[in-house]
Amino acid sequence: MKHRQLEPGNKNIIGAKVTQLRKERHMTQKQLMAQLQTKGVDINYSSLSKLEGQTRSVSDRELAALAQIFEVDLEELYGRDAPSPEEPVATR
User: Fold this and answer.
1) Which of 30, 53, 55, 78 is the most exposed place for a label (fewest CB within 10 A)?
2) R_g over Cα of the chain
3) What is the H or E stretch that residue 85 is in?
4) Mind listing the domains of the chain with CATH numbers?
5) Cα(32)–Cα(45) distance, integer angstroms
6) Which residue spans within 1-92 are E strands per DSSP?
7) Angstrom distance (rounded) from CA 9 to CA 5
């Protein structure tokens, strides 16, 4: 497996979490691409690599599909854990 040679970019904030979730599930980028494509997200290897490397922006459709595939909410993709039932929810 090739390791990323460049430092992460600043085009999105979910790339590192997507990589983490994909690896935790023992998925290859090719497997993730196939799942995204079944959800209607047309993505190629280069685009997925750039998404994970944070060197390209992420569309709302991609966000929704990734959350579905990994069975997480959007907050987790953004790196924020959902509050536990014991924690009070902030109100405005």
Assistant:
1) 30
2) 14
3) none
4) 15-77 (1.10.260)
5) 10
6) none
7) 12
Six-digit token pair at 68? Answer: 């579905």
Q: Do the beta carbons of residue 57 and residue 10 sit within 8 Å?
A: no
pLDDT tens digits, residue range 71-86? 999 999 988 654 444 5
From residue 82, how far is each of 8, 28, 75, 76, 88 by CA, in Å? 25, 26, 6, 7, 11
State pLDDT tens for residues 37-49: 999 999 999 999 9
How far apart (Å, rounded) are the C-alpha atoms in residues 51 and 10?
A: 10
Query: By C-alpha distance, which of 51, 14, 55 is closest to 43?
Result: 51
| Close Cβ partners of 9 (under 8 Å, ≥ 6 residues apart) | 15, 50, 53, 54, 55, 56
Name which of 87, 89, 90, 68 is nearest 77 in CA terms: 68
The C-alpha atoms of residue 88 and residue 53 are separated, in whole angstroms, by 34
